[in-house]
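*Target chain*
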Amino acid sequence: MAETRFDVGMTCEGCANAVKRILGKVDGVTEIQTNVEAKTVVVTHGEGVSKELMLEKLTKWSQASGKSVALVS
C-alpha cells in the first residue's frame, strides 16, 4: 500500500465528507483520513492508483467550492 498526502482548504466536516466521498470513488483507495484543523488529507491506496488522478478529482471540487488543494507527497 502507498500513501498520498494533500493539503486541502477544508473548513468544516462537510468539506471533509465531500473529500472522502470524492476520493472513495477512486478504485484502489482503501482509506482516507481527513483533519480539518490541520487541513490535511492522507489517502492509503494500492500502487496502481495515480496521484494525478486523485489531484484532478480534488481540483474539480476545489474549483466548485473555492477551497485550495495541493499535492504534498
Remarks:
- The mean pLDDT is 96.
- The two ends are 14 Å apart (CA to CA).
- The longest helix spans residues 51-65.
- The CA atoms of residues 47 and 63 lie 27 Å apart.
